[in-house]
Amino acid sequence: NGSRTLLISAYLEHRTRTKKVCWFRKVSLQCSLRCREQLHVSRASVDIHWDHFGFPYGMADVSCPLPPACQAPTHVAVTSAAIRNPGTAAFPYTFTSCFSTMYNYTNVLQLVQSLEMLQFLGVNRVVVYKTNCSAETQRVLDYYSDKGLVEVVPWSLSEYLKVSRRAKPDQDPGDIHYFGQIPALNDCLYRSMYRSKYVALHDPDEFILPQTLLPLLERKYGVNKCYKFENNWVPSEFALTPPAPQTLPQLDRWQNVSGVNILNHVYIEPAPQKPVFNNYKIITNPRSVYSVTVHGVLRSRGSKAVTDCILCCRPRRQTELKPEQLIYDGRLLKYSGRLVSAVNGVLRDNGLLPKDAM
């Protein structure tokens, strides 16, 4: 219809001196808010995120000041949730992971492995931004939604914009970066603001494996920090034998399940020489952050701390590497016994393995 504005979601931002409603959208000229049967029109302030990877459309926060008589609105268009006391110390969830974005997704086995691993690591809520997926993937998402672990957010940007499938316009032209990943991450940040103590922003094929527990990170680096985890690439092209006495579990029963078996991939790429950008991912207290991008924080109330690493199981980044140049990392194998048992149970429950499979 010729509009250059796409409203994604709306949340109350109480942390600034002027209370306001933040609308994640491209542009805006004014705000129309109804308060006590009166229409209030005001000029909106626009904060455009600089990190849009060169695509024509990018993320912006459009903030609407609230009328003095309506500082605690009861309803917000598009997204509504119970208003929580900003000072509360109790949260329904301790650790939320935000997956963005699921588009033509068929990697069922790795999704199940990821969701089970995340639970081992203390995650008790996962928000999945989904455009579309296979029938088997939907069955798994419904299963975890019924268990209360997963919240699926329909992500329909592709109905309004030409979404790119890659990170940069020269790799795949489009209106907006990688299926609208940045708006999804910011939506998850605000969606989790008073529902989760910590939030991790990463993809389904990534695992943040901290050597120390999050309370220890707070003691070491301080609270209200963004903890950045350096990416370690696990090439999915190679299934190499681990050094003795370690062995890979025999999992022939999974061969007919769509997707990557992460337990077959226990070698990482050597870290590229600095100062090559290494695709950090983050865990943060969402109440200390105003805006995020794919690999970090754009605006926050505190500083950042770099710690530990993240494992990323996907096709290799350094395409020239040979198998003998990879470095063994056996941390996933420490979880293999529990993981195999848990994954088998989920696959059986979803009809992806025979009921007698162990």
From TrEMBL:
<comment type="similarity">
    <text>Belongs to the glycosyltransferase 92 family.</text>
</comment>
<dbReference type="GO" id="GO:0016020">
    <property type="term" value="C:membrane"/>
</dbReference>
<keyword id="KW-0812">Transmembrane</keyword>
<dbReference type="GO" id="GO:0005737">
    <property type="term" value="C:cytoplasm"/>
</dbReference>
<dbReference type="Pfam" id="PF01697">
    <property type="entry name" value="Glyco_transf_92"/>
</dbReference>
<dbReference type="InterPro" id="IPR008166">
    <property type="entry name" value="Glyco_transf_92"/>
</dbReference>
<protein>
    <recommendedName>
        <fullName>Glycosyltransferase family 92 protein</fullName>
        <ecNumber>2.4.1.-</ecNumber>
    </recommendedName>
</protein>
<keyword id="KW-0472">Membrane</keyword>
<keyword id="KW-0328">Glycosyltransferase</keyword>
<dbReference type="GO" id="GO:0016757">
    <property type="term" value="F:glycosyltransferase activity"/>
</dbReference>
<keyword id="KW-1133">Transmembrane helix</keyword>
<keyword id="KW-0808">Transferase</keyword>
